[in-house]
Amino acid sequence: MRRGFALAALCLALAGCDRIVGNDGPVRDVSGLVRDLHFTMTDENGRVVHADDFRGAPVLLYFGYIHCPDVCPTTLARLSEAARKAAPKGLRIVFVTVDPARDTTRQLAEYVHAFGPRVKGLRSNEDELEDLARRYRVSYSRAKPDARGEYEVTHSSGVFAFDAEGRARLLILPGASTGDIESAMRRLANAAA
Amino acid sequence: MPQALRDAVAFLVPWELSPLAFVLCVGGVAAYAAGLRRMPRAERPSRWRSAAYFTGFGLVWLVMQTRFDYYAQHMFFLHRIAHLVLHHLGAFLIALSNPVAVLGYGLPRALTQRVLVPLWRRPGMRIAVRMIQNVWVAPVIFVGLIFFWLTPAIHFVAMLSPDVYWVMNWSMFLDGLLFWALVLDPRGPGEAWAGFGARIWMLVLAMPPQIVLGAYIALSGVELFDVYGLCGRAWDMSAATDQTIGGLVTWIPAAMMHVIGALIVISRWIHADRGRPAPHAPALAHGAGD
Fold first, then answer.
1. Min CA distance, B261 vs chain A (Å)?
2. CB contact under 8 A, B70 and A139
3. How many domains does chain B have?
4. ipTM of this model?
5. Domain total in chain A
């Protein structure tokens, strides 16, 4: 059994070899590692949406919150700029709020519209959010509120990229330049073709 | 429900329920408890041995099947503590309790007679086990697995893919059981697969690489495992602090377990040399027989 186990581990390691050797840049291949796109949430217009509604074009999935001081707006701006230049038709940038208690649907609509038409804002209840966090192995935690009730939220910084069939393909690191993201988007378009 | 109780319940709910972990941990504990009841009083192991068994499985359950697992997925140093439990502490305690005789009484007869014994009697199986449970091979696998899963690119894959994560944790636990069962075998020279000197040698051989690796991680100053930042840390802690504590966990308590193991082997060696059996050895040797 021990040998079978070692063999299984070896097979897994070999199968993932191309994702191990040289997979250390600002955009990493996560095909076969991260699960397919799957969720049910409410969008910025208050409509219930499913991952299936996004099939047919690549999706970039990013977790953040509206009150985020710097990382979230920078990331979204960079993603939408790259999308404007290089994205295949229909590519969507999906912003999931990890602070649904504070981020209302209306605020979410105002927020995502500021980043252009490709950005969708999604909101869910705490249980659904936890399921999503478990699925993509991301975390978020709220710090203690200050005297004015403001608080910061620690959350993931990577952007998960899915192809048109909803399969996970790439993980874009926060250090990626607009150019890196553009070439990642072209790769996604080719993966879908 | 008061908040504290609600939090406790939330903590105990498995983050990702694993049927295998459930069968192995709950089944292992239930079979042991049943075995203790059925065993003749004279053969029963001492209380501290039973306590070691239950504590070992309890710790393994805690790191694999509670919310601790969520935190271990998102904090490097907690991941290192989880592996310390799976590979060193939990496996060590279970091996120290030498549960084979008790489990022989407790496991369902159909399972032992129809599955375990025939499996054990297959020649290929024995050769494979002998090959792994070898004085030279066992410490190399023991240390090799630690290095393998801590190779940054492999660690990245293991922390992102639920399947690889699962293989990683189980490989650590099973290897820990094999290694410590070999080192803490209660049988004396002639019967056991490794002599006392060889066991101390294995412990000594496996220790320096872990110290070097732990120290390297703790003191490197470069972020080696960026997957935790990408997926988000469980709470606000800097990557450098997380990695330093993680390195220290890989380094100090792990080495300590080897020292404790060596002290136990030395004390058994002294007992054996004086011509009297080590405490509890006869019943255990009988139970562990082929």
1. 23
2. yes
3. 1
4. 0.86
5. 1
